[in-house]
């Protein structure tokens, strides 16, 4: 289940791309399929073991274009172990809300991105996230959990203040917000709850089958209760030279 829209964030084969805070690797895998030279970066070494295994399986199954490469790197988002101006593009999906010193992490993203490079950031949308926090203390107080709720304006202002140019945005996963509201209401670890189980089965069915009815429903729900907001940025091509921002786009599935 991808959050970044790769029609709005195109990747060219051979691009060097960082998936910062890759987690289980969903965006890293898509970047690899598109021919990028991918670095999947995360703090959790156990997550990275699974990502590395999947990279190997993709190579064995012939899912990877010739010339594409993929590696995993473990480390801290506040001190990325990469040179300045190293990546053509960076994805930071559902990670900044976990980092207390988010501005330092943002500066690291700017540092490792090449001039003219592009950044895609996704974070939980303000309204769905606020409801989750109101329904459940456990949702946001677990170790490694969310430490803030962004508005889109705040996220854009922070990244703009350090030098990024703001491009387009959209919302994603409108069908997923009610699932998390249910989970928060019945207990975030209560996977046996019948309503939570039923809604989870619906989401799995939707992801696997992608029927027209749920695609249309999500298209309508995304601007209202999309679980994630996705914002696209660019690093200026040269000091003092604005980069051309991505075209502003409306919400879409």
UniProtKB/TrEMBL annotation:
The keyword Nucleus does not apply. The keyword Iron-sulfur does not apply. Residues 18-120 form the Methyltransferase type domain. It comes from the Bacteria. One of its GO terms (biological process) is methylation. PANTHER family: 2-METHOXY-6-POLYPRENYL-1,4-BENZOQUINOL METHYLASE, MITOCHONDRIAL, METHYLTRANSFERASE. This is Class I SAM-dependent methyltransferase.
